[in-house]
Every structure is written in structure tokens, then in C-alpha cells.
Write a structure and sequence with these properties.
Largest sheet: 6 strands, parallel
Radius of gyration: 17 Å
Shape: elongated
Strand content: 5-15%
Order of helices and strands: EHHHHHEHEHEHEHEH
Structural class: alpha/beta
């Protein structure tokens, strides 16, 4: 592997950004707007899957498309400013760039809102692809030639494996280190602050191979 061949994919929610405060605020506002009870505290413990998979717990199936559109329209004003970067997120992206590589964010989040988060936080990947979950993420990872995919959920591990990419998991989301290993993660880090050192070792190993 040469440095110009290095492309690293990253998940967004609970990998690059701590989306819990923003999503909590968005669900609270959605409940008020629709007059429907939503347990926002519970909802933010199971981030990762697509929005519809959470909304189905609170709304009838025939309203999911309508409520999804409403949530996504309300989201930018409520959730973007409330959402911080995860520790090490900017440094992780920078480490790939300093190694001569490229970064692509592949997320289940609605793509325009994903881009708003990254822009607000000053995190600038080479590409952003939204609306893909679990195995679907392999489409974008293959398209962008990602050899590594970093995520916090067992769904991210499945996406990496489907793409034939190295699965690097961070135990910063709803899935703990044991669950990530059991799902087949090749590497498990405590959080993104460990990624630059791991990446340096990975590149050194690859250059010797």
C-alpha cells in the first residue's frame, strides 16, 4: 500500500460526532410538534440505524414517511449547534490527510444534515455519503476505494466486511468492545484519540509487507 492508495471511511453518529444532545433535542421538539410521546432518553441509546427504525416505535407505519420528512426539516435549526465533535475526531481526519490519504464519511444520516454537522464543526472529509446503513455502506466504501472503515456500531462492522475493508471499531456508541469484536471487528479502539497511533502502525506494517 502506498500513501496515495490510503482511503479511510468514517461513520458519523457516535463516531465523529456526539449526536446525542442534538438528537435528544430534535425528538423532544418532534414530540411537542406532533403531540406524540417519544422517549428521547431511550432513543439516544440506540443511535446508528436509519431514522425510520426509531420512529416506528412511536408512530404508525403509514405516518413514518411524513414524520421522517418533518424531523429532517426541523433538524438543522435544533440539532446542529447542539452537537459536538467526538474526542479525537478532527485529529483522526487530519492523521489520514497527513499520511497522504483520503477520507470519506459514510452514514445512515440524511446526507444534507450530515454535511451540515461536518461544516459546523469544521471537519472536512473528501466525500460524504448519507442514507446508507450496515451492509449498504459497502456500496460507498467500494466506490471510493476505502480500505479501512471506522465506526461505532455492529452495523458498521458488517458494512466494512461486506466491502472487504478493514473494520476499525470505536467503543463510543451503543455497542461495547465485546459486541464489536463478536461482530467481527478487526481492530477495537476505545475512541478516536487512539486512531492516529494505530494508523501510523498500520501504515508501517503495510510498508513492510
Amino acid at each position: 500500500m502506498t500513501d496515495h492508495d490510503l482511503t479511510v471511511g468514517f461513520d458519523l453518529d457516535m463516531t465523529l460526532i456526539d449526536s446525542r444532545p442534538g438528537i435528544h433535542a430534535a425528538y423532544t421538539a418532534l414530540a411537542e410538534r406532533t403531540g406524540t410521546y417519544i422517549d428521547a432518553d431511550l432513543a439516544i441509546t440506540r443511535l446508528g440505524p436509519p431514522l425510520a427504525e426509531e420512529l416506528v416505535h412511536w408512530f404508525p407505519a403509514e405516518r413514518i414517511a411524513e414524520i421522517s420528512d418533518l424531523y429532517r426539516a426541523m433538524y438543522p435549526e435544533i440539532a446542529i449547534a447542539a452537537t459536538p465533535a467526538m474526542p479525537g475526531a478532527r485529529e483522526a481526519i487530519a492523521a489520514v490527510r497527513e499520511a497522504g490519504g483520503k477520507t470519506v464519511v459514510v452514514t445512515a444520516k440524511y446526507e444534507p444534515n450530515a454535511k451540515l454537522h461536518l461544516s459546523h464543526l469544521g471537519i472536512v472529509p473528501d466525500a460524504v455519503v448519507g442514507d446508507l446503513w450496515a451492509e449498504q455502506k459497502a456500496e460507498a466504501l467500494r466506490e471510493h476505494g476505502a480500505g479501512v472503515y471506522v465506526g461505532d456500531h455492529v452495523g458498521d462492522v458488517r458494512g466494512a466486511r461486506r466491502a472487504g475493508a478493514l473494520s476499525v471499531a470505536v467503543a463510543t456508541g451503543p455497542c461495547d468492545a465485546d459486541a464489536l469484536r463478536a461482530a467481527g471487528a478487526d481492530v477495537v479502539l476505545a475512541d478516536l484519540t487512539e486512531l492516529p497511533a494505530w494508523l501510523a502502525a498500520y501504515r508501517e506494517d503495510a510498508s513492510r509487507a
